[in-house]
Amino acid sequence: MTRGAARMEEGAENAVDCEGVLDSSDQDLMLLVKEGDRGAFTTLVNRYQESLLNFFRRMGDYNSADDLVQETFLRLFRYRDRYRPKAKLKSFIYLLARRAWIDHRRKQERLQRGYEKIAGESELQRVADAPSLEDAKSKVRLALDELSDEMRTVVVLSVYKGFKYREIAEILDIPLGTVKTRMFHALKKLKDILQDE
Amino acid sequence: MNSRAKEDRGFWKKCPGEEDLVAFAMGETDCVYRDAIRRHIGLCRPCSRLVDGYSRTVETLKKEEEVALLDRDQLSEAVADNSEEKLPERKRAQSRLFGYMPGFKSLLRVAAVLAILLGVTAVALKFRSRNTAVSASQSIGTALHGGVDWLLAKQRPDGGWESEDLGGDPRYAPALNGLAMLALRRSDGIGEDLSERLEKATEHLLQQQSSEGRFGPVFDRTLYNQGIATLALLEIYEKTGDGALREPISRSLDYILAQQSYTGGWGYGGAQTSNPNTSVTAWQVQALLRADKLGWNSDRGSIRKALRWMTRTMDSKGHFGYQAVADSSPGNRETFTMMGAHCILTAQDLDIPIEPELEERLLQGVRDVAGKEPKDYYGAYFYASTLSEMGEEAFGRALASLKSSLVERQSPLGGGWSADDRWGSAGGTIYSTSMSLLALQPVE
């Protein structure tokens, strides 16, 4: 599938989600997955993997994005019994994605502290997940990297994944007001960075 | 002129906050505010520039190209293969069975349930609708797993739960952490081993204890922190037998006893400052009863005095009051009745009885309120505890209905429960999730 077509598909999902057509198709697939249907699971993987890959890359994990995508889908399958049809599958998937990302970050930090003890370095460095030279050229990515994890998550879910504030509040399990505040601070900072360039 | 129109007019003159302008730029305002802001920025150049600036920023962000996944099919297959590998043996066998006869899955499911029914005939005769009980217990099990995972996900590296981040009042931190610990302690054995997590939580809680044994700050709700935190430590001690906990628990119990009023109950802020009430008293009594059960050299006289105070708020129909007979509204009355009943029934298990006449009234009160739905998670916990203690035969249906209702309220996304009752602003989602888990768990 071409990049444009992939974007259209994701855009169509976001738009048609409002009418519930593709979303109910997601639900049908997920109900089959709950029965153990592997074909339905593969279809879901196909549908969401690219979007998730970009989510993790935008969250700053360039080198681990593939692993994180795989981890998210493994969790989707493992926790399939927890999915309730009344919830959007997309929200459920991104909730799992964010948890996988947090766990990955914590593991990295523990490893990094371990390296510090050995190497005697005093500063935490995200060396393992530094972007490649090519990626580092993107000013947007550099700007997103300047945000705190909390602010970046809200921006990525809203701007790139099309979630409404209310949905983001559910995914992140934070009050709606907090989403609004984080979005404001994030966009303010991004505006300052990007318009200065 | 209605209030909406007034708000509209307000935006003519006053610039909206920048947060609202960002929300407008993101399409997150409702139609009334959207129209008002739109009219405003038509006239206010600074606000118009701000909105343009944010909109351009969002457009710049969106121009960032998505990365195409080159080996899409390979990844899909790899993920699907890995997931299949990681299925537990039991489920793998099941999916093979269903896989052979995909067109008859529903019939096979029914057949499997009937096989369970036949295989446990004696138990099946006890319950009328075994299918419902099996699926209900599976739902509760799933809900418990989800809730535990939620609590574990929210636990910080220092072992505590940040009450303010989760919508609660930070002054209640010891109580809220205590509730989370109780919920996890009673869930231990459902899934992964929680020992390490509970150990960290205990360390964190102990750091909040003062030298005089008090948990948390001194304020008018101190004793909620005290009773709940003490109960949590006692249950951890019961599980682990860790001798290092004896001293802090003893200090905590001493503090509780020192705050008991001369009438026997406990009130907001301690014995010197307020009248006792059932809500605060119940938590102290639970802590003292647990200590007594564990062989602590607790003062049974204090426990008896407290129970006498509680029964003095009981009316002729067995309903408990808040500070006196019949002084609470419906909704509260039911919760207080279950709180009082829970304490008294627990005490009876420890051979601390009450007079037969009072016992009869208490049972009448419980029977009266059993069929009513509790108004909040707080009430749900005491309802579930009391109905469980009263026995399945008498109250099985009411208990099942309560638990089913709680399962339905669990967030479909995250496994927690929303803090959407009247105590939500004080306790946040730690409170709502922990109390729901405690209500769903079997009583020990």
Q: Mind explaining what this structure looks like?
A:
- The complex is a heterodimer of chains A (197) and B (444).
- In chain A, helix 5 (89-119) crosses helix 9 (165-172), helix 8 crosses helix 10 and helix 9 crosses helix 10 (176-196).
- Mean pLDDT of chain A is 76; it is low at 1-24 and 120-137.
- Chain A is built from 10 helices and no strands.
- Chain A is mainly alpha-helical and 197 residues long.
- The two termini of chain A are 34 Å apart.
- Chain A has helices spanning 3-17, 21-34, 38-58, 65-78, 89-119, 133-136, 139-145, 149-160, 165-172, 176-196.
- Chain A is globular and about 50 Å long.
- Chain B is an all-alpha fold.
- Chain B is built from 20 helices and no strands.
- The termini of chain B are far apart.
- Mean pLDDT of chain B is 81; it is low at 1-9 and 85-102.
- The interface between A and B is large, with 63 and 58 residues.
